[in-house]
Every structure is written in structure tokens, then in C-alpha cells.
Amino acid sequence: MGAGAGVRWLLALAAVCLTMPALAQEERAMLIIAHRGASGERPEHTLAAYERAIDQGADYIEPDLVPTKDGVLVARHENEISGTTDVAERPEFADRRSTKVIDGEQVTGWFTEDFTLAELRTLRARERLPQVRVANTRFDGLWQVPTLAEIIALVRAKEAETGRRIGLYPELKHSHYFASIGHDTAATLVGQLHAAGYRSADDPVFIQSFEADTLPRLNQMTELRLVQLVSAQGGPADRLGVTYADMLTAQGLADLARYADGIGAELALLLQDYGESTGLTDRAHAAGLLVHGWTVRQERVFAPLWARGSGEETAPINAACSNLIWEALARARVDGAFTDQPGWGRAVLNENRNYICL
User: Fold this and answer.
1) Could you list the residue range(s) of the whole structural domain that residue 325 is in?
2) Displacement of CA 254 from its chain's centroid (Å)
3) Coiled-coil segments, which residues (predicted)?
4) What CATH number is associated with residue 32?
5) pTM for this predicted structure
6) CA 225 distance to own-chain centroid
7) Of 18-32, 109-123, 290-304, which range is least confident?
């Protein structure tokens, strides 16, 4: 970046920050969705991460769900678990290592669908990003891989403790692949949620998926709210030839609104340089869809270029830059945001102050 461009960048940033209105009451209602729990502070998808997120004021906790060999839904970001458990160090499971093609990609490792729940429960969770989240590694080995039933039980216990509703925001991972090997994860999830008393659009549940055919099927099975996940690149793995860009045209949004209640959109789809809205939120709202953005993270390495400030890549961005991101989402009228640090997001939104991010 040349000197002139750098000056223009700083001036634009300052203008955005200085003209930000204080958050209105409606904007304060932006949902804080704990991405894999408070995964910036505890190893992701552990009961400890979910409980910390709830204690920090998250409105929803987000478990990614995959099945075991005996069909039990458990929380892991992926069904390949060598990066989030100690399975690679367990000699009794060395022969379970294999290579599979999942959503068109070849993956080598250990997979949840090759372990019974009893076997999986002998493993221990670990931090997935140890170079970035060094502090989280001190918790390696403390917790098991949780089941969906345990997560629901935790939510109910925390509701009783706090007196507030706590939402569930499960993501079905690789539904098409799992169906091909005999696991109907959509039906399993709906059955389990309905049995737990989550049945209507008024219940604090959103079910999400990146796949194109999963939500239309779910729409025939449940009244619970559904969210189509979309990325700035690529398209759904289960519908070749369709891109996420196709799904976000005016016609695409209208089609989504026939079976979904919202979209979960990558931040790059919602905010452009200097945090200005791309207009996608307004277009989605016009189609009758909610908009939830993913993922707001506190570390500089993950922050948008226009809100990184200066410092070490793995260090947290400063208060000014934090405020810039959350204010930009509020000004874009985003209905909710996924974050790895829900306590940070809640504090910024509650603080209701303006800064200059430099």
C-alpha cells in the first residue's frame, strides 16, 4: 500500500468510526451466538466451552454435530478428529486411521463414524489451534467429546440456574455423506430435539447447514427455524454446479425463503472495506430472511483487514477495533453474529461507546 493509499485508508476508517451512532435498542438485540462455545477461551465443542459461553451471556451456543458408529450425535467441528482429540496418540486405535472421500475431498485421519460412543468417550479433547490459542492448551485432556443429549442437559441446567432462555444452534455436518453410509443425521437430530421439547418456531433453536438439500428436507420434518449457511466462495457440496453466489441473487433469496428462516453468511459477504454494508442484509430482509454473520474472532490474524490495528498476529485486537467490527455489523442491521469470544462481543455491545480504530 502506497503512502497516499494508506492515508486514504486511515481517513476512511476514522470517518466510519466517528460517524457511528450509538447502538439503538433494536440494534442491541443482535444475537450473540457462541461459535463452538467460548472456543477462544476453552477447547471448542466441550461442555466447558459451552458453559463458559452461557456464563458470558451468549444467547445461543453452537454445536457442530456428527454421528458415532452407533448413531449417537456428538459435537465435533468435523468427523475427522485427529486435530481435536488425542486419538493419534492412542495405540489401541492406530488401525482405525483411514482415508475417505468426504464432500469430494480426500481426508486422512480418524473418523467419528468408525467409533462407538463408548470408544469415543475414552478420548480427550484438545485445542484445535494451539499456535494461535496457546492458553487453551492448558486444558488439553480435561474433557470428553460431548453428546447432543449432554449439551441439552447443560442448557436446561443453566436455564434453571439463570432464569433465562438459552438457545441451541446446531449445525449438521456432511449430511449427504453420512446418509450415503447409513446415518440419517437430520432425522436423528429432529427426533432428539422434539423429544426434548423443542418443536416450534417459537423455541430457541436454529438448525443450520451448508448443504442445499438438507434444509428443504428438514422443512418437511419440523417447525423449528432453519438457516442456510453460505460462504463467499464455492457452493454446496451436495449440489454440484450451484454456487453460494447463485443462492444470494434476488431469485435465490426468494427460493431460500420458501424453506429457510435465515442465512448464516460469511462476514465478507456482509461487510466490505472499512466495514460498509454490502447490502446483502437488506436484500435478505426484503426476502423475509434473518441474517447471522460468521465468524467474529478477537485475534488479529482472524480480524478483517480494516479492523486489525497493529500488534502480534495472535494477540487480541484492541478495544477500538473490536468496537468497529461490532458497530459495523449493527449498522448493517445484522440480526446475530457467531463469535469465538461471546463475552467480548457482549461487552462491546453493552458498552455502547465509539472509538477510532488505528
Assistant:
1) 21-82+145-351
2) 24
3) none
4) 3.20.20.190
5) 0.91
6) 16
7) 18-32
112-121 confidence digits (pLDDT tens): 999 999 999 9
Residue of 77, 174, 176, 183 with catalytic role: 77
Residue 318: partners with Cβ closer than 8 Å, 6 or more residues away: 309, 311, 357
Query: Does 98 fall in a domain?
Result: no
Catalytic entry in 35, 174, 176, 183 = 35
* Catalytic (active site) residue 174: no
The CA-based diameter of the chain, rounded to the nearest angstrom, is 62
35 is catalytic: yes
Per-position b or e across 80-119, b if 16+ CB within 10 A of its CB: bbbbbbbbeeeeebeeeeeebebeeeeeebbbbbbbebeb
Residue 91 counted as domain residue: no
In a domain, 108, yes or no: no
H or E stretch including 28? helix 25-28
| 63 touches 148 (CB < 8 A) | yes
List, in order, residues 6 or more apart from 250 with CB less than 8 Å away.
283, 287
Q: Dihedrals φ, ψ of 174, to 5°? A: 55, 45
Side-chain-side CA neighbours of 272 within 13 Å: the count stands at 7
Query: What total of structural domains would you count in the chain?
Result: 1
Mean residue pLDDT across the chain: 92
- Please choose, from the candidates 32, 63, 69, 38, the residue with its C-alpha nearest in 3D space to the C-alpha of residue 181: 69
The position carrying cell 447490502 is 279
Residues 31 and 149: beta-carbon distance below 8 Å: no
